[in-house]
């Protein structure tokens, strides 16, 4: 089965639509959504409704820290993120908020694990910034491949049976075989707010038969997404950063 794995949509309808269209055109048979459906962007209602429809059709979805913040005042964020969350709370209806609240922290499916942040303490929202961080996540699960988001920058880590770690920054549209005998941690870039210097939306395709992963980038209508943020009175930096990919 060909999985399309997406993370950190952040209320960006234009980016989400573009990724779904490309994933379907490339043969994706099932969608995996790794959280942060809301926050920053100006179309949280549409994004959550679309996620709900995908889950009803068999997609897997997990909770991100921004999703949790919608229903919990205990989540602490920077000032601009907090403004966006408070605005988002006023936009979502009860069913949409309940969907976010009921999402699991992680999902184990066959030999794969799906989580927003990382597997050792998913509720603490740690970032995977290094091989040390990646090792903690990999040690916490027997899964052959773990998929996570949260940091908005793509990376791929692996650990051998002797706990030797390797890492690489994956190239766009180059399939990488995830060999047996190693554990793998695929860190996705962001759909709705990339931070690796490339403003194109990011997601991955994963073939469960060949065990190959392909990191994908998708151009989208950034100007419309940015205009929507400005029109709704959200912090201007949330709009400006979209074109900068940071």
Automatic annotation (TrEMBL):
Top-level taxon of origin: Bacteria
Gene3D superfamilies on file: 3.60.21.10
Molecular function GO terms recorded: phosphatase activity
Recorded GO CC terms: cytoplasm
Domain Calcineurin-like phosphoesterase: 1-208
InterPro entries per the UniProt record, alphabetical: Ap4A_hydrolase, Calcineurin-like_PHP_lpxH, Metallo-depent_PP-like, Pesterase_MJ0912
Cross-referenced PANTHER family: BLL5683 PROTEIN, METALLOPHOSPHOESTERASE
Family statement: Belongs to the metallophosphoesterase superfamily. YfcE family.
Protein name: Calcineurin-like phosphoesterase family protein
Species in which this protein is naturally found: Bradyrhizobium stylosanthis
């Amino acid at each position: 089965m060909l999985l399309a794995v997406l993370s950190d949509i952040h209320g960006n309808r234009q980016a989400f639509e573009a990724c779904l269209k490309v994933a379907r055109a490339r043969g994706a048979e099932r969608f995996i959504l790794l959280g942060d459906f809301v926050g920053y962007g100006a179309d949280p209602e549409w994004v959550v409704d679309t996620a709900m429809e995908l889950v009803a059709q068999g997609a897997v979805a997990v909770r991100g820290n921004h999703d949790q913040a919608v229903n919990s005042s205990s989540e602490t964020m920077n000032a601009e993120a907090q403004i966006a969350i408070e605005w988002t709370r006023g936009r979502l209806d009860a069913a949409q908020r309940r969907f976010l609240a009921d999402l699991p922290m992680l999902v184990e499916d066959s030999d794969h694990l799906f989580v927003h942040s990382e597997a050792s303490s998913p509720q603490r929202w740690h970032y995977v910034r290094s091989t040390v961080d990646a090792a903690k996540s990999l040690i916490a699960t027997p899964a052959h491949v773990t998929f996570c988001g949260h940091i908005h920058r793509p990376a791929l880590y692996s650990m051998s049976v002797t706990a030797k770690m390797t890492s690489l920054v994956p190239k766009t549209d180059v399939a990488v075989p995830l060999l047996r005998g190693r554990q793998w941690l695929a860190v996705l870039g962001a759909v709705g707010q990339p931070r690796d210097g490339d403003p194109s939306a990011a997601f991955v395709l994963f073939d469960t038969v060949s065990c190959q992963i392909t990191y994908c980038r998708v151009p989208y209508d950034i100007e419309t997404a940015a205009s929507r943020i400005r029109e709704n009175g959200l912090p201007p930096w949330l709009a400006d950063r979209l074109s900068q990919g940071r």
